[in-house]
Amino acid sequence: MRLCRRTVELLVGFLWLMLSAEAAFAAEAPVKIDSGDTAWVLTSSALVLMMTAPGLALFYGGMVRRKNVLSVLMQNFIMAGLVTVQWILLGYSLAFSGDHMGLIGGLSWLGLRGVSASAGSAYAPTVPHQAYMVFQCMFAIITPALITGSFAERISFRGFFLFSLLWTTLIYDPLAHWVWGLDGWLHRLNALDFAGGTVVHISSGVSALAAALVIGRRAGYPSVPTPPHNLTMTLTGAGLLWVGWFGFNAGSALAANGVAVVAFVATHAASAAACLGWTAAEWATRGKPTMLGAASGAVAGLVAITPASGYVGPLAAIVIGAAAGALCYFAVSAKQWLGYDDALDVVGVHAVGGIWGSIATGLFADRLLNPGGGDGLFNGNPHQLLVQIIAVVASVSFAFVGSLILLKVVNGLVGLRVSGEDESMGLDLTEHNESAYALELV
Fold it and tell me: What single DSSP character describes residue 41?
């Protein structure tokens, strides 16, 4: 009898151990790759690439003079090649692998070593690691491309190329780690930046200001007129940016889920409101609304909603967008009396819009819409606003001072500005030996 009881106890113990082991295995088993999430992230990656070339390239290209349009298109298009290679070799590892004091990643993913095409990661467990990597790559491409609008029509291609490479490595990659890296110091502080208000727009906007100050004004500015040569091209680019931005923001949910829907709707609502906000401000102050103003307003709304897109509802998005439209309009107008030559209004749209959007995130964020985020001031959490201000100040300071240093270094090494004769002739011919509009005599 005692032997039977002992046997039963052993069997029960064995079964308990087996069940415990299975439960432990189930708990430790990796999350399965979701085909819907993967399809959405890959589609979003393609949309974000479209934002740079052709979207941003056409948006900027139409706003410069005819003799410089190819130089702007080239600067934006070549960024896809330059940053992609940098990202695969070094950039992704610096931004997202390991951690050194919350400031920069490590080298464990150098050359994408260990970055799987079939298994997920801590950043996005339901999509292959390489899908997350390539999505982030598209953000790294467009960010330095945004800066090109500030020094358009006067920078040498070699100066632009070296500055862009150094800036991506030494400014963008560390800042991405601060905000999005699992151990980044701003990430641990719970700074909310859903899709790049600090990492993309503030960094590019304040770096654009540094570039405009170091490189100086275009010859004859502001007395010599520099009207856009092709607003049809600019409007086409703006439309592509608006469409691509759904991948930029909604894709940052990293899943085909409700948070992606929140970001998608907020993105569209904010852009629409900002288009109206800029148009209203321009109409009231200048007497007539312009197509360039409406397009610029839509982009300003997209910029401002980027950090908040996954955390706010449609009504808050409309408020953020409408305010961004008017605010960015007045910021762009102010450059006339401040005296700096930001050729294509990168500072007024991206720096000001990004700062407003990041602070607005601390005002309007709603945990009910995204449990992974937090509440803002208007939902009972004033601390979040303080965190957002800290993130803004840190991003502005790091990007501006770092860019000043890099610009000085590049200028000393290869030079930044073309000669006065080359600037007068136009960068299309002097830098690339091409013409955008070749007219044949019949």
Answer: H
